[in-house]
Fold:
Amino acid sequence: MKKTFLVAFLSCWISSVVIAADSEPAVVYDMGGKFDKSFNEAAYMGAERFHKESGMQYRDFEPTNEAQRTQSMRRLAGRGANPIVAVGFGYAAAVEEVAKEYPDTKFAIIDMVVDLPNVQSIVFKEHEGSFLVGALAAMASKTGKVGFVGGMDIPLIRRFACGYEQGVKHINADAEIFQNMTGSTPAAWNDPGKGAELAKSQFDRGADVVYAAAGGTGIGVYQAAKDDGKLAIGVDSNQNHIHPGTMLTSMVKGVDVAVYNAFKAGAEGKWVSGVQVLGLAEDGVGWALDEHNSSLVSDDMKAKIESLREQIIAGSITVHDYMADSTCTY
Amino acid sequence: MGSPNGNGVVMDLEGAFLLFVLVLDSTARVAVPLIFCALAGLFAERSGVIDIGLEGKMLAAAFAAAATAAVTQSSWIGLGAGVVVSIAFAMLHGFACITHRGSQVVSGLAINILVSGLTVTLGIAWFHEGGQTPLLVDDARFPPIEWPGTNVVGGVPIIGPIYKELLSGHNVLVYLAFFVVPLSWWILYRTRFGLRLRAVGENPTAVDTAGISVQWLRYRAMLLCGVLCGLAGTYLSTAHGASFIRDMTAGKGYIALAAMIFGKWRPLPAMLACLLFGFLDSVAARLQGVELPVVGQIPVQFIQALPYVVTVILLAGFIGRAVAPKASGIPYVKER
Structure:
């Protein structure tokens, strides 16, 4: 009798796990961690929004070294998680490998294109969003000199820099732009000390607005701007709240929307594979205006940025994409 | 039209001089953690204990200081916590390789790996910000100290910028770093403790024969090492920066180790090596993206490799052989 109960209980338990796991979506974050106040946190917000709206649970994983990328994805796929959203270009190799092993599981990757029938690739037009914050930087700058601090020197970050440069030059053709990359290894995403020094080196040369696309390194850049009474521009998430009053704006990337949409499409069976390119027109990128920076952005500036935004969407301004030809000529 | 032109040249010279002073200013800020760490490594190795774990101790101190300062809102309590945690890891290293004569390199590396994971894990558990600590408000950081009369002296040419930008306006830990260098020299070369410390790193048997405890001397060296690493870590997270971020030391412990070897295990040359690294770093930041005649734009990778290239060239060509203390890395076994 006891045994039968146990068997019944066990089979119930197992089947419930299988049912739950069957539709449970999963997200794997990039190396910066879930609460990096930036890129990964945006992904987390998207997953949480899906959880609150649908009531469905999801799984997530934060890798602490490179080797865990493939391991974690394989384990999640093996447990039946579906769809699995990989956040960050660093997952390209892992997605390619695991997506082939689990052809019935749906995968999504953000910031990279993986060409497989069960993979959805979501990329953003960062150059368009960076153009807008560049224009705002040029309008806010009193010295006509602005700065950019990138994280690791990769084409994706050059795309941010190039879009920013075009935005600045669009407003003030004579403006001077100082560009610094923090490093050429992944350690460049987590070096706030170096970020602060790079920002200060730009302030020393006269820059009064600095845009950081550098993950955790950016925290040092924003702190340096606050310490020296200059303006900084955040990236990926809305980072205006970090230092209210010295954060001019943030170039927001719709990573939250991308994760939310992927989860939702998976749950509703409306999943499509292929490449999705999200720009200003799709609200995939944009600039942040809230109570923390409203005092820094005048109505004129706001109107100008909005009109630039519409012109880019309409196609009367085209923003050159660095990754199209690996040069920043426009 | 001659005079405005001449004026322009004078202005440019002044501007260039100011920029140079600002580079030196940045050099000082970058070099501070390196100086603390290089001296820490110097005390350890002079006593015969190799310490690869400078990086780990510095990271642990950075986390402890930032976490404590965030909770207590006091930078000084943060400093205390940073130093205590760093000493604890130094004692752990001592226990493994002085008392138990384990491999010093393995123990040091183990500390680095342990701390890299432990800080993030504790950070996630305590603050729920992905391993970061909350951003510190200004009151919980070490504020810059403005020297008296900067506005008056600041206007004087040459001396003005040096006084205003380079000497004044740093936090207390920066001044402490430059004070600790002569202090270390004095301890090493002018005190009985220093003499014994140097002896124990060269010939522990002789020291033992004289009736002085080798182990106790080495433990005291590790204590100093812990204090100095603690200061370095605290500087990173509560003076230079305003929060702890995963792996924020970014290899500075290893660079400090190189600076110590570069300075041939002597305080003053080690400090100069740290300043050289800091200077090259600061110059590199300003060289990025600059178009130079003939060569054009210098690749970022080259600029970032510059400090290391210069080190190799200087070490190979100009400084000569760096000879480590003879007993460095060898656990002492008392003859029975």
Q: What stands out?
A: Chain B touches chain A at residues 19, 22, 26, 29-30, 33, 117, 120, 124, 128-132, 135, 236, 240-243, 245-248, 250-251, 281-282, 285-286, 288-289, 300-301, 304 (CB under 8 Å). The beta strands of chain B are 291-292, 296-297.
